[in-house]
Amino acid sequence: MQINKQALQEIIPDSERLLFEENIPAEYLSDALGRRTGTADALVFALSTEEVSGVLRYANENGIPVTPRGAGTNLVGSTIPLFGGIILDVSRMNRVLELDRDTMTVTVEPGMLLKDLQAYVEERGLFYPPDPGEKASSIGGNISTNAGGMRAVKYGVTRDYVRGLEVVLADGTVLHVGGKQVKDASGLSLKHLLIGSEGTLAVITKCLLRLLPKPETSVSVLVPFADLGTGIRSVLTILQANANPTAVEFMERKVVALGESFSGVQYPRPDAGSYILLTFDGHESEVNANIERVRRLALANGAIDYIVLRSAEQAADIWKVRGALVMAVEAVSEQEPVDIVVPISHTADFVRYINELEASSGMRMIAFGHAGDGNVHLCVVRDGRDQQTWERELHDNMEQAYAKAYSYGGVASGEHGIGISKRSYFLRETAEENLAVMNTIKTALDPKHTLNDQKSYIMGGK
């Protein structure tokens, strides 16, 4: 496999957007964590669908691996080039192409950042609900992992807001799937097949997204509990009460303490063992009624206080700590970010198991996450372990954690994707029949396995 530099230069005539071998910056050979590194022969910054198509056609004809890349915020190694070849970066394709108020849709390029899209539509009285923690992630990346975030309990995940896609297949074919229509029972849903496929089936070049009217008001509430189990159990009561919270987050006191040190913000009620953080949005009268309904339920189900964050500054500070939890742990020690999902009814059971595993193994495992949808985030902390011990103990403990999650009917990832780091756990726990179907689809769309091969579900076409 040899890259023909002249052939790529004919597709990408701007030399500043085409780098080779030793000129490729190190960060493009890894993911956001930077702990695993691949190799690449060329880095391409595409600006159009035509350029993406040309690069993929050239790579496919010559059997050259291609690794798609957006903002580079991936946490599971999906953007690491395992077999050399070409890194196809679409981060500079970051424009708003159309805002259609009649159909309540916006069309953007895949490199547009989530925070920029949210700001753009909210300035115009509209709302894009998906809200993963990393606001500097790209929309194409969010679609590729079906990102969720804190508002999923009320609004759903990225999949629920993708109306259509323009994608390029491995051989350079441009495909349009979905559209501005609300209903579609016309053949197989290729759009949904591509969402969450982590760049293994196609490269996204345009994103047609559904919007909502911007909520009239939004209010957050912090609810301290003596222990995490009581807090999470109360969430089930809240969700069944038709109070319609936008976000329901849980945090153990020990991780909040790290967040406080990192951010300089102090939470009220430091005597609590855990906190549930909720947001309500909508019409003001509806929000106030739901806040009062949940206040009664929370206090009746073990809450030691109920703190309505009416001040925008106070609410921003409380959410600042929640948003900084991963960085707060990273500031203390290297850690492995995990986003296992279990049925909501087993969230407390799973977190209890993780605490037991922490005690028996001696490896710190700090839990927080989305109590409203069972998405448990863990920071598994390295502390002072040498590399060999860290890798061995991490693997052993994660084998147990993923097995327990699957025993509850859970899955390996809610929003980070599978990539490289979760692949062994995913392959071990997923039915062979399911994997066979996934790989049949992969081979049908990418017969030479040039696109992001041996990531996620792919059993290995090379």
TrEMBL record:
Key word Lipoprotein present: no
Alphabetical UniProt keywords: FAD, Flavoprotein, Oxidoreductase
Domain of life of the organism encoding this protein: Bacteria
Pfam families per UniProt: FAD-oxidase_C, FAD_binding_4
Gene3D superfamilies in alphabetical order: 3.30.465.10, 3.30.70.2190, 3.30.70.2740, Uridine Diphospho-n-acetylenolpyruvylglucosamine Reductase, domain 2 (3.30.43.10), Vanillyl-alcohol Oxidase, Chain A, domain 4 (1.10.45.10)
Cofactor: FAD
Domain FAD-binding PCMH-type: start-end pairs: 36-214
Database matches in PROSITE patterns: FAD_PCMH
Identification of the protein by name: Glycolate oxidase
Species of origin: Butyricicoccus faecihominis
Lineage: Bacteria, Bacillati, Bacillota, Clostridia, Eubacteriales
Gene it is expressed from: glcD
